[in-house]
Amino acid sequence: MAITDEQLVRVLLRDRETLFAYCWSILRNDDLAEEVFQELSALAVQKRKDILSEQHLAGWLRLAARNKAHELIRARGSGPTLLDDELLNMLEVDWRRWDATPSATLLHSLRQCLTGLGKSARELIDLRYGQGLKSAQVAEKLNRNVKSVYVALTRIHVKLGDCVRSKVAISG
């Protein structure tokens, strides 16, 4: 039996951040990721009769997102270097593991982990993601070297990733 309209909308709204993050992980561009997410949502509505369950929808959305990202880059003739399909296939295993974790749980854990960061780390995160500045703009604003901003953000990402995984594991 196909997924209902209500289930489809609920999943798209509930998992919007996760889907956007997946699109961004492929494209590494906010505007392109948003464009793919919107096309993906419309496509899911069109194809809903072929989608059997919420779990099936999660995998379908990621595969469709990957395909839409490739189409978008081909249509534009240029853009970011996409992640290799082999790497995306390996990452798919990890994404499937996270499918069972509600987005609200992940967001709650992330918010808790963000409060545990030091002042300068929170400032970097706010400038980069809260205000949407590019790393070069963050470096300029803080009068720092761009490479040091990249290194600091990488360390923060690792710390936040470890913290979120730990909190999700603890909460079950």
How does this structure look, described?
With 172 residues, this protein is mostly helical. It folds into two domains: 5-99, Orthogonal Bundle (Rna Polymerase Sigma Factor, Chain: A); 103-171, Arc Repressor Mutant, subunit A (Orthogonal Bundle). The chain contains nine helices and no strands. The radius of gyration is 17 Å and the shape is globular.
Give short descriptive properties of this protein.
Rna Polymerase Sigma Factor, Chain: A; 80% helix; 0% strand; 172 residues; Arc Repressor Mutant, subunit A; mainly alpha; 2 domains
Distance between the termini: 30 Å
CATH topology of the largest domain: Rna Polymerase Sigma Factor, Chain: A
- Return residue spans where pLDDT drops below 50 for at least 5 consecutive residues: none
Quantity of strands, as a count: 0
Shape: globular
**Helix percentage:** over 70%
Number of domains: 2
Strand content: under 5%
| Annotated CATH architecture of the largest domain | Orthogonal Bundle
Structural class: mainly alpha
> What is the helix tally?
9
Rg over CA atoms: 17 Å
| Major sheet attributes | none
The average pLDDT score comes to 83
CATH class of the largest domain: Mainly Alpha
Element-by-element helix/strand order: HHHHHHHHH
Task: Write a concise synopsis of the structure shown.
The protein has 172 residues and is mainly alpha-helical.
How do the strands and helices of this protein lay out in sequence?
Elements: H1 5-14, H2 16-27, H3 30-47, H4 54-76, H5 85-99, H6 103-115, H7 119-130, H8 135-142, H9 146-171
